[in-house]
Each structure stands twice: as structure tokens, then as C-alpha cells.
Amino acid sequence: MRIDIITVVPDLLKSPFEASIMQRSIAKGLVEVNFHNLRDYSTNAYKQVDDYQFGGGAGMVMMIEPIDKCISELKSQRDYDEVIYMTPDGETLNQKIANQISLQGNIIILCGHYKGVDQRVRDQFITREISIGDYVLSGGELGALILCDAVIRLIPGVLGNETSALTDSFQDNLLAPPVYTRPAEYKGWKVPEILTSGNTPKIEAWREDEAYKRTLERRPDLIKNQS
Ligand code: ADE
């Protein structure tokens, strides 16, 4: 998968791709991530990428021209499956959306700033608008990172153990069951006996049960929305 991220603050984005799973996915050649500084596409002497909004009002708006130049240049080099805009008024990111995007080949992610982008950018170039939650960030960069992390770990070969992404919380609309590791007893606090029984079918049934109980308790909305 190739990810092109368009931003006015590339420095905010780089280090998370230099550690842990995202770094390994790049090292293994499974993912390529490129950062594009929008200011490099400004024709303005001051490298300006935003301007006052028509009609008045507080807050600057990101101009169409540098964004058009950047996206058009990328599109002239290869085809893209999605051009995603990170914005608080987009569809809220969930596991289903992460799964869908993980199947794409090339994607562009545009990070908004200030009051957002000129609406014509959204009308002309954007295929999908994503929010990471009902709160407003200073820019789309941190949202883009969360989207990349959620997507990249789903790409086959990225996680060592393929099944571990499949058993994540939300993959079957259920939260994950509790997990334990050694020692089996610590300060008198014991691991549930079933987990050390070696009875795989019973362990699976216990896990399903616990996942269901936990979801019912913490996120009953997930069970209601199952159909
Ligand atoms: N930009 C600002 N707030 C955001 C949010 N909640 N999700 C995605 N991008 C954003």
C-alpha cells in the first residue's frame, strides 16, 4: 500500500512511522508513506496556503490552488483508490472503515487546518471524509496518524501473527475478552482456571462468553447495531 499524506506540518507526522509496527511495515516493503508539504505547492512569495473566508467570519481557510497542484501532481504519477480528507464533520472512523481502507492500493490523505479547506477541494477531489471522533483537533495530522495505524496493522504480513488482527476488539462487533499471562498466580490473584486447562474448545467458548459480557456491559450499542 502507498500512502501520500498532504500536510502543512510534516514534522508532526514523521516520528510515529519510525517506530514499532508502522516502521516495520515500511521496512518490510509492505507500506510506503510519503509526506508532501503543502507550502511547497504555494505560488505565493510567503508560501501562504490559507486566506480569509469569503463572506467574513473568524478563521482562515486553506486555499484550493496549492492543494490542486499537489493532488494533480500525485494523480499524474499513478492512480489513487481514495483521496481522504481528515475533518471533524466526516464519517466517524471505526473498524469497518479501517478494514475497507486496508484493502486499497494507493491512497492520499489530506490534513485540514484552520477552518478547513475551501469547499471546492472537497467537491472536486475528495472521495471520502473521515473524522476520528466528536472533538476538534488543531489539524488533521493526528487523525491521519490514527487512521494510518488502524489501517496498516490490518495489511497481511504486517503483524507477526496474522490471527491477532482478526481477534481484535470490534472485528466481530464485540470487545475483546480479558487476557492473562504468566505467572498463573500473583499475590494470590489467580488466572481463571479454564485458561490453564488446555481444553481449547472450552477456552474458546469462555472467550466468546466473556467478550459478549464485556460488550453488553461497556458498549451495548455495538450489540444493538449488529444487524
Ligand atoms: N481535524 C480536526 N478535528 C478532527 C477530527 N476530529 N477528526 C479528523 N480530523 C480532524
TrEMBL record:
It is found in: Cytoplasm. This is tRNA (guanine-N(1)-)-methyltransferase. Its EC number is 2.1.1.228. SUPFAM superfamilies: alpha/beta knot. It is an enzyme of class 2 (transferase). One of its GO terms (biological process) is methylation. S-adenosyl-L-methionine binds at residues 112, 132-137. InterPro entries: Alpha/beta_knot_MTases, tRNA_m1G_MeTrfase_C_sf, tRNA_m1G_MeTrfase_TrmD, tRNA_m1G_MTases_N, tRNA_MeTrfase_TRMD/TRM10. The gene is trmD. Residues 1-225 form the tRNA methyltransferase TRMD/TRM10-type domain. Belongs to the RNA methyltransferase TrmD family. Signal peptide: none annotated. It catalyses: guanosine(37) in tRNA + S-adenosyl-L-methionine = N(1)-methylguanosine(37) in tRNA + S-adenosyl-L-homocysteine + H(+).
